[in-house]
Design brief:
single chain, mainly beta, five-stranded mixed beta barrel, 13 strands, 13% helix
């Protein structure tokens, strides 16, 4: 069993991160059938967040903390930038999730994503293993856990400025994981939702936070999944 190092990292809100599994490096994306698709959400839930919750998706979409709302499908994961502290051995690694946009709800029209059809989401990659000083979770682990084609709904904001770079630290590879110049987004803690299809129907899962307020869910969600939430956001006047 590898020993791991756990960091306290600032995200959209204060986050303290817990243990994560280990894997091997690689960047192969594999597609699976959409008839029954179960995902391993544990690769995303590497922290606990202190934040102001919104009891409905309409309120989160309207809030100033949300610049972009988009529905789409995961197109794959790639290694993102690295934050290096004053001690060169203190490194925090990030992963970039490539999302193919299927529905523009807020802040997409007129941006590069409007032309390319993709948004890029920065996520914490988890703790590092002491024996390698590399992330315990590989890019392959992310691609296996949340395969290409997984449906998501994102409520995000600008992620171009890295978090928690101290006075003597720096960031490396700021353009990593996406085409150069493409904007980087960071989800609000309750603003990353994923859909999986099981034998009993469609299930909506919180990506960073497990709990989804009751005000987000409707009786039809097992049939329509994320579409039910996206439809509500669109009905509130967000269509671009």
């Amino acid at each position: 069993m590898r020993k791991i190092r756990v960091f306290l990292v600032l995200a959209t809100a204060t986050a303290s991160f817990t243990l994560a599994g280990c894997g091997t490096d690689g960047a192969v994306t594999q597609s699976q059938s959409s008839l029954q698709r179960e995902i391993d959400i544990s690769v995303l839930r590497v922290g606990h967040y202190n934040y102001i919750p919104f009891d409905t998706p309409e309120k989160l979409a309207t809030s100033k903390v949300t610049q972009v709302v988009a529905q789409g499908e995961v197109a794959g994961f790639a290694a993102g930038r690295t934050i290096v502290g004053a001690d060169p051995n203190d490194k925090r690694y990030y992963v970039v999730m490539d999302v193919k946009v299927t529905r523009k709800l807020k802040g997409v029209v007129g941006t590069p994503a409007d032309q390319t059809g993709h948004v890029y989401v920065e996520l914490f990659r988890g703790p590092v293993c002491n024996d390698t000083m590399q992330p315990c979770r590989s890019i392959d682990d992310f691609n296996r856990a949340i395969p290409s084609g997984t449906k998501i709904l994102l409520f995000g904001n600008d992620g171009s400025t890295p978090f928690a770079v101290d006075a003597n630290g720096h960031s490396e590879g700021d353009d990593a994981g996406r085409p150069k110049g493409s904007p980087l987004l960071r989800p609000y803690p309750q603003g990353l939702l994923l859909e999986q299809t099981t034998a009993s129907g469609k299930e909506v899962l919180g990506g960073l936070e497990e709990d989804i307020p009751k005000g987000w869910l409707t009786p039809s969600i097992t049939k329509t999944g994320l579409d039910a939430i996206a439809d509500r956001v669109a009905a509130a006047g967000f269509n671009g």
